[in-house]
Amino acid sequence: MAEDLYDLFFAGEIMQGKDRQQVRSTIARLFSADDQAVARLFSGTPVKIKSAVAQETAIKYRVAFRDAGALLDIRAVAATKTTTTPPPGDAPAEKPEATKLQLLPPMTGSLIDCAAHVNPAPIADISAIALAPEGTPIDESEPVSAAAVNTDDLTLAPAASGTLEDCQKVVEPGPLPDISGMTLIDES
Fold first, then answer.
1. Which of 11, 139, 174, 175 has the highest Cβ tally under 10 A?
2. CA–CA distance from 76 to each of 7, 54, 82 (Å)?
C-alpha cells in the first residue's frame, strides 16, 4: 500500500496570543529567509512550503511551525490542485482547493499528529529470569535477633499531664563580635 503524501502550505497565520514580529523572525530563522521571502510567506496567500511529503515529515513541520507560533496547513496531495504563475497578460492561476474544517464533538479527536516521535528504549533480555515457588524466602540470610532492652524502670505518664520542656536542648548564645571600632558616617 502506498504511503499517503501531503503538501504543506503557509499563509502567514499565527497562533492567538503570539507576537506577529516574533513569529516572523522565528520563521525567517527557520527557513534562513531574507525579508522578501518572509514578506511572501506572511502575505495572506497560501504558499506551498513542501510538496508530497510523508506524514512523519508533515508532522515535524507542523510541530516546528507550532513552536514558532504559526499555523501550518497540511493537505493530502490528492486534495490539492497544482498552481502555476501565468505569464503577464494571461488569466490568473487556479488557487489551491480550500479544505473545510469541521469542529469535532467535545472529548473526541486526537493531537497525535503534533506529538514528537519517540524511539522506544531497547528491552533487556529477561528470558533467563524465573519465579521461585510460592513461599520461597527472598532473603535467605539468617534473621537478626532482637536486642535485649530492659524497660522495667520506665513508666508512662497519664494522658495530657506532662510537657516536653525537659527534653528541650538548651543552646547557649555565641559571643557577640567586638564592633567598638566601627563608626557611622553621616553622608547628608
1. 11
2. 6, 10, 13
